[in-house]
Amino acid sequence: MSVTAVVGAQWGDEGKGRIIDYLAQQADVVIRFQGGDNAGHTVINQYGKHALHLIPSGIFNPNTQNIIGSGCVVNPGALLDEMAQLEAAGVDLSNLWISARAQMVMPYHRLLDELEEAARGEDTIGTTKRGIGPAYADKAARAGLRIGDLLQPEWLESRLDNALRTVNRKIEILGGEPVDGQELYELCMAYRQKLATRIVDTVPLLRRAVQERRSILLEGQLGVMRDLDWGIYPYVTSSNPTAAYASSGAGLPARAIDRVIGVVKAYSTAVGDGPFPVELHDADGERLRELGGEYGATTGRPRRCGWFDGVAIGYAAWLNGMTGLAITKLDVLDTFETIKICVGYRLPSGEVITDSMPDTPVLFQVTPVYEEWPGWQTSTQACRRWADLPPAAQAYIRRLSELAGVKVDYVSVGPERDQMFEVDAVFTTAAAPASR
Ligand code: GDP
Ligand code: IMO
Ligand code: MG
């Protein structure tokens, strides 16, 4: 029994949803600790295929408490839609809770996200337009409304008045239509009616769970390369998907976390703008996109694809203090004759770096240095143990582990819940991340 943070180790869409769904079969509590409905965490199990946006991916286990944590930004309208979809599929939502301290994404945040992207001209961030950046900006500016405010109508009304004074000016400057306070208040009262019984103070609940040594999963959204502080700023999201924020966003002491699992695809993908050194603009890139079904779960945008980035994984492993990797989508590489791995970035000066992440303007100019590995050219989809994997696939995974300096705990070979297994092999190459 332990507290495990599950975080994205690349640019997002690593397969966090399916890993959480698998691990949640044994979990007492799952908490989403940051982000909002910009997430699309795909889960395929006996309830069908679902792209979860806000609801934690442990929701399919009726015995698991699922909490949307205080580090999240919650659009109640989007949440209600998602709840309706899950209920229609027969999923029991009686253990779904929302932290009273989570911020609310209001309709004007979505509008501002659109207007701000448009105002950026050519230099867009490629946001999901779900209002995430404006909602976190209001949180930091202390102009946000919180989910718990729905329970205090008078307080909510005055907070809304206060917020709209600046929000409407911003909207007008950016060429949009100002929003009406009364209409928004009424919308909030409708949300209150539908969500009030799920709004909780998470502290007593989690305190008890930690004291009783329950099994707790902290679910991250996106990945380290889009972290507000450590990602490819400004082409990042407006919160911290790294494990250091997991305790704060969930509402647990930092030292309660025992394990950090970095979820990592066997190759690389990114959706949205910004530098992506390993991006392929050739037939291999196209092949990865088609074989991997690499289209955004939230926006449907085609994902940019490339080979595995060993520099990014070393950075991700260190920053997150990963204790293990979960490698997903190994099967997507099944038919390749040769597979490349990026093991360094060549700077414009000619110098090759392997163990640090250059800042954004430099990252635009680096060229990846590749190693070539032989493909296994046989299907891995039916593999259910380490020993079932072809030797070339084992060697490839060992190399990824070596570049991360972290052992591999799980491998997935298909999107279904049972197409995943715990690794029982010994990884002698693993170094403690803190020693890198
Ligand atoms: P998340 O946001 O990190 O949860 O990842 P997404 O759900 O956005 O993207 C992962 C995609 O890959 C989804 O369509 C999953 O169904 C799919 N997927 C996850 N693991 C595997 C795997 O091992 N093999 C294959 N072929 N697909 C997978
Ligand atoms: P999951 O949880 C992939 C990207 C956007 C954009 C940047 C900022 O499924 O991994 P935002 O809307 O957050 O202000 O956009 O982050 N982005 C994602 N990319 N998967 C996601 O979520 C993403 N959420 C945001 O494309 O580049
Ligand atoms: Mg996703």
TrEMBL record:
Name the EC number(s).
6.3.4.4
Active site feature: 13, 41, 139
Q: Which GO terms describe its biological process?
A: 'de novo' AMP biosynthetic process; IMP metabolic process
Question: A Pfam family for this UniProt protein?
Answer: Adenylsucc_synt
PROSITE patterns assigned? ADENYLOSUCCIN_SYN_1, ADENYLOSUCCIN_SYN_2
Q: Which reaction does it catalyse?
A: IMP + L-aspartate + GTP = N(6)-(1,2-dicarboxyethyl)-AMP + GDP + phosphate + 2 H(+)
Give the binding site residues for IMP: 13-16, 38-41, 128, 142, 237, 301
One Gene Ontology cellular component annotation? cytoplasm
UniProt xrefs under SUPFAM superfamilies: P-loop containing nucleoside triphosphate hydrolases
**Under the GO molecular function aspect, what terms does this record hold?**
adenylosuccinate synthase activity; GTP binding; magnesium ion binding
Q: Cofactor binding mode, per the note? A: Binds 1 Mg(2+) ion per subunit.
Alphabetical list of CDD domains matching this protein = AdSS
Q: What is its main location?
A: cytoplasm
Q: Write the record's keywords in alphabetical order, separated by commas.
A: Cytoplasm, GTP-binding, Ligase, Magnesium, Metal-binding, Nucleotide-binding, Purine biosynthesis
Binding residues annotated for substrate, in chain numbering: 297-303
**Which pathway does this polypeptide act in?**
Purine metabolism; AMP biosynthesis via de novo pathway; AMP from IMP: step 1/2
Q: Which cofactor does it need?
A: Mg(2+)
Which annotated residues bind GTP?
A: 12-18, 40-42, 303, 329-331, 412-414
The subcellular location is: Cytoplasm
The residues the record assigns to binding Mg(2+) are 13, 40
Q: How does it assemble?
A: Homodimer.
The record ties this protein, via NCBIfam families, to: PRK01117.1, purA
Q: Which family does it belong to?
A: Belongs to the adenylosuccinate synthetase family.
Q: What protein name is recorded for this chain?
A: Adenylosuccinate synthetase
Task: Name its species.
Answer: Litorilinea aerophila
